[in-house]
Amino acid sequence: MITEEMNGFKNFYELGYRFLPKYWGQGFATEAAKASIKYGFEKLKLDSIYAIADVQNIASNHVLQKVGFTIIEIFNYQELPHNWLVLHNSVQANIEGENS
Asked: What angle do CA 80, 27, 24 make, to 5 degrees?
């Protein structure tokens, strides 16, 4: 999804997902993230994809980091601290090469 503005960034692509609690912990977020990243880099030819996650949302932060995102700063969103994460296309290519 393209987001118009957040955390001082404008017109960037953001990875996001939400699941009902009964679907948590089943790997759906990881699979959705991987598919979205692949589509973004291979089909849309994006250079970078961003994500945010509430600092206290350990599971979501874990998923994002597991698929290659890096926390680059913490900022306040809706009066709560959130991690600001990025995944660059060149980093993803390196991760896929290691997993081959």
From this structure: 50
Residue with tokens 């790997």: 27
As a whole number of angstroms, the distance between CA 66 and CA 79 comes to 26
What would the two tokens of residue 12 be? 């960037």
pTM: 0.82
Q: What are phi and psi of 18, to 5 degrees?
A: -145, 140
What span, in angstroms and rounded, lies between the C-alpha atoms of 73 and 84? 5
pLDDT band, very low/low/confident/very high, at 23 (cuts 50, 70, 90): very high
Residue that has been written with the tokens 């599971």 in this structure: 59
Beta strands, E only, the chain = 2-6, 9-13, 48-54, 70-77, 80-88
